[in-house]
Specification:
This protein has about 120 residues and is mostly helical. About 45% of the residues lie in helices and about 10% in strands. It has six helices and two strands, in the order ααααββαα. The chain has helices at about 15-25, 30-35, 45, 55-65, 90, 95-110, and strands at about 70-75, 80-85. A two-stranded antiparallel ribbon has the order 1-2. The longest helix is centred in the last third of the chain and has 14 residues, at about 95-110. The radius of gyration is 15 Å and the shape is globular.
Length: about 120
C-alpha cells in the first residue's frame, strides 16, 4: 500500500503475504478478480456469478480494488453514465496466483469445476 508521497505503508507487517492479504484477503476480492480475468467487466455481469455477491458488497469491493490499483473504472455509456471495470497490469499479474489456486483447489476438492471465459 502507498500513500500520496509514494512511501509504502504496511498495515500489519512487512511480510509480502500479509501485504497481499491486506488488499485481497476478504471473501470476495479474488472472486471479482477471477471474473475480470474471465472477461466480465460490467456490474450486472458480476452479479451473475454463482457465489451471489450482494450489490453493496460488490460496490465496496470494486472501490477497494480500484483504490489498490488493481482495476480501473471506465465509462462505456453516457446518459446515464455506466461503467465497466478493467484490470490494470497489477491486477492482471494476479493471473498466475489464481491459476495456482485453481490447481490446488482441483487437487483437494474433487468435483470442483473451473469456469469458462465469459467472452
Amino acid at each position: 500500500m502507498t500513500n500520496n508521497s509514494n512511501k509504502t505503508i504496511f498495515e500489519r507487517s512487512h511480510c509480502p503475504i500479509a501485504c497481499a492479504l491486506d488488499q485481497l484477503g476478504d471473501k470476495w476480492s479474488l472472486l471479482i478478480i477471477r471474473d475480470l480475468l474471465l472477461g466480465k467487466r460490467r456490474y450486472q455481469e458480476f452479479l451473475t456469478s454463482p457465489e451471489r455477491i450482494a450489490t453493496n458488497i460488490l460496490a465496496d469491493r470494486l472501490k477497494k480494488l480500484e483504490a489498490a490499483g488493481l482495476v480501473i473504472q471506465q465509462a462505456y455509456q453516457q446518459k446515464p453514465v455506466r461503467y465497466e471495470y478493467i484490470l490494470t497490469k497489477k491486477g492482471e499479474d494476479l493471473r498466475p496466483v489464481l491459476e495456482a489456486l485453481v490447481k490446488w483447489g482441483k487437487a483437494y476438492f474433487p468435483g470442483a469445476t473451473v469456469f469458462k471465459s465469459h467472452e
